[in-house]
Here is the input.
Amino acid sequence: MAKATWETTATFADLRGYLGQPGCAICSCVGQSRRRFLEDLVYENINDVGLRDRLRKGGGFCLRHVRALLDRKQALGTAILYGDLLRQRLRSFTERGGPRALPLAQDCLLCQVESESTRRATEVFAHALDAGRLQAEWEASEGFCWPHFITCRRLVRGQRAVLDRVEERCLADVARDVEALIASYDYTWTGTRSPEVAGAWRRVVAAVTGETDPAARDERT
Here is the structure.
């Protein structure tokens, strides 16, 4: 990927911005892609015949992404999309062989969107870090979740030591806050939990596994 390609992308600008915010910047990029896809789907592409056909053939979204759709509370778009799937099942009563099992999210479009967003964001970050860009932002960040850190580590070449040093420090910070949170539940404890300590139970899950909803990173209590 040539410098002129990655440095002028929206992904590079997004990474630079998200590295200054709480949580994993790659998760934030992926979450943004997910939200944009759903917003475009329910507002702009609801009558896209090809897209609706792909959703029918694939059985809709996986359960995780169904929850993301429901969280948007878009009654009309959701009713149209899943009404198609319901009619597909009703038709099976009049077809030869009768009701049968149908595909359930065998080819989830949102999983594909997230996979492509992850690939793009990790590649741009790796190129940028190796080129001497985003290092200051990376060093001031809260690091990546472990899955995205490992993916980036496979791609980073010359600046892997910088990548490792920051990630180790950030994980150690989370570990310290988790230990403080656990200690605060002892009956002899009389202190006050800081926002970082109070929210450590969410942060440790995010650090180890990645996140399904980037908005959770903003919750500190």
Notes: Residues 41 and 77 are 8 Å apart (CA to CA). Residues 212-221 have pLDDT under 50 and may be disordered.
